[in-house]
Amino acid sequence: MDEVLKLFPITTRRDPKGRMTIAGQSLRELVQQYGSPLYLYDGATLRSQLALLRKAFEAEYRGGFEITYAAKAYFSLEMAKRMASMGLGVDVVSLGELKIAGKAGFSPKRVHFHGNNKTVPELLFAMEWGISDIVVDNLSELVLLEFLASEKKKIINIWLRITPGVKVETHQYWQTGDIASKFGLPINDGQASEGIRFAQSSRWLKLRGLHTHVGSQVFDTQPYAEALRRLIGLAEQEEFILAELSPGGGLGVQYLLDDKMADAVDWVQTMSAALEHECGKRGWPLPKLLLEPGRWLVGQAGVAVYSVGAVKFSSDGMYIVAVDGGMADNPRPAMYQAHYVAALADRLPSGVLKRASLVGKYCESGDQLIPELKLPEVYRGELIAMPVAGAYQLSMSSNYNMASRPAVLWLEEGRAEVMQRRENPDERGWWVNDSAQD
């Protein structure tokens, strides 16, 4: 049984000859047309994830809610257009993401601007566009924003990002809610209280809510409930009744067959119960609850497809299989030892399985997509597909070794649409500044 298909998009199948299809389309034929490496996003899988989360909200939370996509997971103009058409809000962290959101058709009232070090041009653009909220990260930013607002004589809606001091079980780089985090106003040393008081006393800043983010790739829902309890307690202490509240995103996805399965329904149930209890005992109305999933929405929808190049044995007997991508399109394994699985796209594995290492083509020893897996003998030109490739691969990709970023397709049943065309090093301006002399 090809168990690994459980990790692929929900439309993934193998035909009678073992050839993989997604949304009814052959991966081999897509690579023949668009080249490799190739990234694929399955529309049906993304819509299924979104429908599950909306249904959970409608069943579990009696207050208003909004689902807001965390653009840092993967954002391009064409992806943004699709997200906007699905009625999502968007969480952005840069001027580039702000401008793409605008071009894609997001209403500014559904845009939330995050980041721990927003620049003056970014803040001015967000202010002029009239976005829903600027999520203020620290006291110095709060002072800066009030100054800019006073100069423009414009009242600005804000949230404050609060660091609740809640630790979660995840990679140290994905911890964002503990007291040592670079993000947010800590509760424990009084900065969060000072921020609320400053905002409430400001003529130009309208404090509408609080935000937190406990971490990424989180599977336990209880830290979210604890973070919300701490934010409600902080608000009560400062006599601030919340209109809006966001626990961020960060719900984990399954990369390996034996990984935990995150339960989005339990996520919503846990937070809804905590909020209803905390607000109920204070006689407060329920705030609008905003969730910011990124990886959880798009992770499983994405697949990376590579072509096999060189194969060889190392002196310790490891079967080394090199593909035409690697750390330039997916730096996650090199950066923090992210784990993946892979499958042959043209056939089911047969014969003797070898202890293998799937490596990239870049000039780094750390360019290993999967340090160890089982593979049969493979041949130059065969295709290898890597599931759960929808988040943080392309968004963290680079032109290392002057590599071209791959083409990205959106798949619907029977058709493929180009979201990003493959970069072409022959195009003027790709590898040199346009102002440079020939």
Can you tag this structure with a few keywords?
Lyase, Ornithine Decarboxylase, Chain A, domain 1; 8-stranded parallel β-barrel; alpha/beta; 2 domains; 438 residues; elongated; 9-stranded mixed β-sheet; 24% strand; TIM Barrel; 11 helices; 21 strands
Summarize, please:
The chain has 438 residues and is of the alpha/beta class. The chain is built from eleven helices and 21 strands.
Task: Explain this structure.
With 438 residues, the chain is α/β, with parallel strands linked by helices. It has 2 domains: 3-36 and 302-389 and 393-420, Lyase, Ornithine Decarboxylase, Chain A, domain 1 (Beta Barrel), CATH 2.40.37; 44-296, TIM Barrel. Helix content is 28%, strand content 24%. Mean pLDDT is 93; it is low at 170-177. Helix 2 runs parallel beside helix 9 (264-282) and helix 3 (77-85) packs across helix 4. Helix 6 links the parallel strand 8 and strand 9. The chain is elongated and about 70 Å long. The strands form 3 sheets. Strands 4, 14, 15, 16, 17, 18, 19, 20 and 21 form a 9-stranded mixed beta sheet that branches. The chain has helices at residues 27-34, 43-60, 77-85, 95-104, 120-129, 139-152, 191-201, 222-237, 264-282, 295-298, 332-336, and strands at residues 13-14, 20-22, 25-26, 38-42, 65-70, 89-92, 111-113, 133-136, 156-163, 185-186, 205-211, 244-248, 288-291, 302-313, 319-323, 343-344, 354-359, 368-375, 383-386, 407-412, 415-420. It has 11 helices and 21 strands.
